[in-house]
Specification:
19% strand; globular; D-Maltodextrin-Binding Protein, domain 2; 34% helix; alpha/beta; 5-stranded mixed β-sheet
C-alpha cells in the first residue's frame, strides 16, 4: 500500500489551492512515470511540522530555519522554486518590512531604536522570514532581542499583514512571496500598511524529502522540472513560480542559531 506523503503548504492560500492542486497533478504524473510512490493528493489536514518529519515524506516545502535547526537529520533538501523576486538571485527570497505608518521606519534604523517597538507581529517563532530575520537589525538572535511580551504570534504572514493594517502591531516582516500574494488577495489590508524596506536575500524555502529518499533526489528534481514545463502558464502565474533551482544542505548553514 502506498503510504507516501506530500505537502506544499507554505503558500497554500484558499485562492491558490486549486492552482497548487493542478501543479501537484503534473508532479504526481511525473513521479509515477519514474516509478516513485506518491500520493494522488497533497496532504492538508496534518500540521506541516508533523509532515516535514514524516518518514514517508516524498515531497515537502519547509522554511530554511526549521530545516537548519531541527529537521536537518530527518530530511534532504534538493531544490527551490524560483519566484523571480526583485533584487534576489534565482531561488532566493527576502522579507518585506512593513509598518502601520511612516513613523515606524524609525524602529529599523538601529538596534537601539528597535528596542522601542511596542508590538511586533510574527507568523511563528520558527520562521526565518517573519521572526529570525530581525537579527539583521538587532545584531542578536531574535529570541534574545525581541521580548515575548512584544510578540503577537499571528500564525501566518497574511495575518501579520492584517495585524499591522489594523494597528494591532507596529511592524512585521513578511515573506516576499506571501507579500506578493497579499497584493492580489488582501489589497485592502496592504493599502493600510507602509513598506519600510527589505531584508537581505537568503536561499528560498527548500523542497525536501525524507532522508531515506535521498537517493531519489535527482529523479525528484527531474520530475518537478518536467512538471513545471507541462503546467499551464496561468497556473504558474497564480503560484508566482518562474522556475526551479537546485539546493543543497549547506545553502542553509546561515540559518542556524
Amino acid at each position: 500500500m502506498n503510504t507516501a506523503v506530500a505537502t506544499l503548504s507554505m503558500y497554500d492560500w484558499p485562492e491558490t489551492s486549486h492552482a497548487l492542486d493542478v501543479l501537484w497533478s503534473h508532479i504526481y504524473n511525473q513521479l509515477t512515470q519514474r516509478e516513485i510512490a506518491a500520493p494522488a493528493k497533497l496532504e492538508r489536514d496534518a500540521h506541516p511540522a508533523a509532515l516535514w518529519s514524516n518518514s514517508e515524506l516524498i515531497l515537502g516545502q519547509t522554511c530554511g530555519w526549521p530545516y537548519a535547526n531541527y529537521l536537518k537529520e530527518q530530511v534532504t533538501p534538493f531544490a527551490r522554486f524560483d519566484y523571480d523576486l526583485p533584487d534576489c538571485p534565482a531561488g532566493d527570497y527576502n522579507s518585506v518590512y512593513i509598518g502601520h505608518d511612516d513613523d515606524d521606519y524609525d524602529h529599523l534604523v538601529s538596534p537601539q531604536a528597535f528596542e522601542f517597538v511596542e508590538k511586533l507581529a510574527i507568523n511563528s517563532d520558527d520562521s526565518q522570514s517573519g521572526f529570525h530575520v530581525f537579527a539583521e537589525i538587532t545584531g542578536k538572535p531574535a529570541e534574545e532581542s525581541i521580548a515575548k511580551e512584544k510578540r503577537i504570534v499571528t500564525g501566518a504572514h497574511r495575518n501579520s499583514i492584517s495585524a499591522v493594517a489594523n494597528g494591532d502591531a507596529n511592524i512585521a516582516a513578511i515573506d516576499a512571496i506571501a507579500f506578493e500574494l497579499a497584493k492580489h488577495y488582501e489589497p485592502e489590508a496592504v493599502s493600510k500598511i507602509v513598506v519600510l524596506g527589505n531584508s537581505k536575500p537568503k536561499p528560498g524555502l527548500p523542497l525536501i524529502t525524507a532522508k531515506d529518499n535521498a537517493h531519489l533526489t535527482p529523479l525528484l528534481y527531474e520530475a518537478i522540472e518536467q512538471a513545471l514545463e507541462e503546467t499551464p502558464e496561468d497556473i504558474l502565474q497564480t503560484l508566482l513560480i518562474k522556475g526551479l533551482v537546485k539546493a543543497k544542505p549547506s545553502d542553509y548553514d546561515g540559518f542556524k542559531v
